[in-house]
């Protein structure tokens, strides 16, 4: 396994050498007070036995119960346990994003706080990463949730996501996943998008695979989600797909639609003229003039929106000095 490296920034700022852990475990936590003690015990009993340096970052997502107090007490005993506490509840995706932002490890493993994932799967995830994968996604093959309302719906949703994204996984929703820090440090997550990290990563050229993991029924508390999540996930997928394919050239989408609309408007106009001149029917008696006018306006509007979108994209890339590509490796050259 890779040796821990020294964080040069920390060295420069503090004058002392702060070793970077190899593994960062990130855990989103919202009202899980009953689960936290078992979670810490189970997690550390695994992490203490594997031969690697690690940190555990718990993100308290505005819990209203005693989760934070309990975490605080655990953190006093274990310096590897770090806590990021939100001012209010921002949702699991924001919590995961914060975890990624604060993680120092080369490998990031995300896991649920509710004891449904099993930390004993972490060593297997790590050895899979050692085989050279950038993302290893857990697959709750024997999922212990409500049969129809959760498992069936999620199976259908997973199928749809696979089809639309072109990234074949059985279980996007499983939080237990491992990522190479490099691959995820630049993803920005909104809505329900944490489950799409493997898709993003794969589109960026990362090597993604999946691995069956254990799953347990929820012991304490209840799930924070209902059926409405399925709709959110599908809508988020549309956004992700659009942004991936067309983000850099939105005019192709808006402009393409606009040109199509203008072309149909032109054809309707010709049809009107044909009716008038050849068939001798007055076009005022048909809905065609309205149709032609609407299509014309929609076409022009779409083209203009495409131009606006192009300006937005330029602002995005140029103001933040972003690149429209992502580099895996640079050889014989000093990376900036
Ligand atoms: N979670 C969170 N913020 C939220 C909702 C959930 O941090 O607003 C955490 C929650 O504490 C748990 C994980 O996200 O650790 C998954 O939530 P849950 O178990 O309710 O989802 P399910 O397993 O039912 O899909
Ligand atoms: Mg759960």
Question: Judging from the principal axes of the Cα atoms, what is the shape?
Answer: elongated
- CATH level 1 name of the largest domain: Alpha Beta
SSE order in H/E notation?
HEHEHEHEHEHEHHEHHH
Please give the domain count. Answer: 2
Radius of gyration: 26 Å
Helix amount, in percent? Answer: 40-55%
- What percent strand? 5-15%
Write out key terms for the chains shown:
binds uridine-5'-diphosphate; 2 domains; 7 strands; 336 residues; binds magnesium ion; Spore Coat Polysaccharide Biosynthesis Protein SpsA, Chain A; 48% helix; seven-stranded mixed beta sheet
Could you characterize the architecture of this molecule?
- It contains eleven helices and seven strands.
- It has 336 residues and is α/β, with parallel strands linked by helices.
- It folds into two domains: 19-245, Spore Coat Polysaccharide Biosynthesis Protein SpsA, Chain A; 251-319.
- Strands 3-2-1-4-6-5-7 form a seven-stranded mixed β-sheet, with helices on both faces.
- α6 (147-165) runs parallel beside α9 (228-246) and α10 runs antiparallel to α11.
- The relative contact order is 0.10.
- Mean pLDDT is 89; it is low at 1-15.
- Bound molecules: uridine-5'-diphosphate and magnesium ion.
